[in-house]
Write a structure and sequence with these properties.
It is a single chain. The chain has 452 residues and is of the alpha+beta class. The strands form three sheets. A six-stranded mixed beta sheet has the order 11-12-10-9-7-13. Bound molecules: adenosine-5'-diphosphate. Adenosine-5'-diphosphate binds next to α13 and α15.
Length: 452
């Protein structure tokens, strides 16, 4: 801690009268007592007035000539009595303006102020309580001690498992207040600022990215290994076997195709991610888009032996959207329902006006793709839109799936401010509904439907 009193000139330096006044003020209690004693001695003990006055004059002289050190100590004592143990209003306003939870504590670790974000995050901690009551993190409390003892700012990280897995980071920094001459560094340590940052989302994204790279590499490596294996077989044992060659070449073509689909989906995903925060501007009619995309999938449906029924309103269903991306969404959902719900022999696609909270609000269009296949067990539903997540990996591969289709759908819909809802009863089929905001007000007339 700096010794402010020895380093700096007294405020009255260079001003002789001010210095005298300051010295008298510092000894005021002693002088007062001397005067009172003199009056009592003159009044009661019969001491002569000149003697009393001479005594007082000596005391005043002694006060004026008192050593400078004692005077400064007295001044410091007075100043320290004026310093409040609570942070000032400016400091409080500043901490309230910070987006992260932040505690102002004193050198002993007692909470002196808790900003708004910390009150929300840590359930209204009380100023006056030790910080350890809210943050029982040994590393943090040790850092607090080190900073309290005059050490530099510290950064601490820790993770919590309850109520859910989270990662947090605290920055513990010394805080000076009221330094004379405006020099914060020279001012004494008054408080310690503890700001807490939630790193959970950042960590989750880092983990997701790492998982994604690992998954993508694995997905690409499998067909690649199969391709090189067959090439080696064709160069070696099967060199002169025309039947095996034909069979192996057909498998190699399939594997090459699988790699191509995977790369296409990966590129599609990264392209959509790049535009994730830009909402499309073009207004287009969703109904013909649904009809044409379903028409284009007729050969796939025929091959799977599935009858596709499409129902759309007669009126235009205007939405703000990117045509190619919306086609990708419809294709993905309809293709999935044909592939995975083939055993139900029937797929219903229905575009209709959704329920609107207010008559004058634009409302939403709901595109529901329903199949009557095996359905999806409930524990898989929340994870279906994760990249590479499949209910059954081998079925997905058999169906030429990459595990990226619904992740692409979700990304496109997020960009369109639309939502995907999935309902399924195992054994009865699945229904994937897209709720997309309408670009114009949806009226009751829109419910008049046209069956294609
Ligand atoms: P894939 O490329 O494997 O089809 P998707 O992301 O499109 O990947 O789908 C993820 C998984 O969701 C699929 O592997 C499948 O298990 C499941 N799924 C998707 N649609 C349906 C459906 N209509 N019925 C049953 N399961 C489905």
């Amino acid at each position: 801690m700096n010794d402010e009193s020895t380093d700096r000139p007294a405020p009255a330096a260079g001003n002789f009268l001010g210095e005298l006044r300051a010295r008298l003020a510092a000894q005021r209690w002693m002088l007062g007592a001397a005067v009172a004693l003199g009056v009592v001695a003159w009044w009661q003990a019969g001491v002569t007035l000149p003697l009393v006055l001479a005594g007082i004059a000596v005391m005043v002289l002694a006060a004026l000539l008192a050593p400078r050190r004692r005077l400064l100590v007295a001044r410091r004592l007075r100043q320290s009595r004026q310093v409040s143990p609570w942070p000032d209003t400016g400091m409080k306003h500043l901490s309230d303006a910070l987006p992260n939870p932040c505690f102002i504590v004193d050198r002993r670790g007692i909470t002196r102020y808790v900003n708004r974000a910390a009150r929300i995050r840590f359930g209204d901690p009380h100023p006056g309580d030790p910080l350890s009551m809210r943050l029982r993190i040994p590393a943090l409390l040790e850092a607090l001690d080190r900073v309290g003892a005059g050490g530099p700012a510290q950064r601490i990280e820790w993770s919590e498992r309850v109520p859910m897995e989270s990662w947090l980071e605290a920055f513990v920094a010394p805080l000076a207040q009221g330094g004379e001459g405006g020099e914060a560094s020279a001012a004494p340590l008054r408080f310690i600022l503890v700001t807490v940052q939630d790193l959970t989302e950042q960590r989750r994204l880092e983990r997701m990215r790492a998982d994604f790279v690992a998954n993508a590499s694995h997905e690409l490596r499998t067909p690649l290994a199969s391709l090189t294996g067959f090439v080696e077989t064709l160069q070696g044992p099967a060199r002169d076997d025309p039947v095996a060659r034909e069979r192996f070449l057909a498998i190699m073509l399939q594997q090459g195709d699988r790699m191509r689909r995977l790369i296409d989906d990966l590129l599609s995903l990264s392209r959509i991610e790049l535009k994730a925060h830009v909402q499309p501007e073009t207004v287009l009619d969703l109904a013909p888009l649904v009809r044409h995309t379903c028409d284009a999938l007729t050969p796939v449906a025929d091959e799977a032996g599935v009858a596709v029924e499409v129902t759309t309103p007669q009126r235009p269903c205007m939405v703000r959207g990117d045509r190619d991306e919306l086609i990708e969404v419809i294709e993905n959902l309809v293709e999935n329902s044909i592939k995975y719900g083939a055993s139900g022999k029937r797929v219903e696609i229905r575009l209709a006006a959704g329920e609107t909270a207010r008559a004058d609000a634009p409302g939403v269009w709901v595109l529901a793709v329903r199949d009557f296949g095996p359905g999806i067990p409930p524990q898989h539903l929340p994870r279906l839109t994760e990249r590479f997540y499949r209910v059954d990996v081998s079925t997905s591969r058999e169906m030429k799936g990459t595990g990226l289709g619904l992740a692409i759908v979700k990304h496109i819909l997020t960009r369109h401010k639309a939502r995907l809802e999935i309902e399924s009863t195992p054994g009865e089929g699945a229904c994937f509904s897209v709720k997309i905001p309408a670009a114009t007000i949806v009226t009751e007339l829109d419910d008049a439907e046209k069956v294609v």
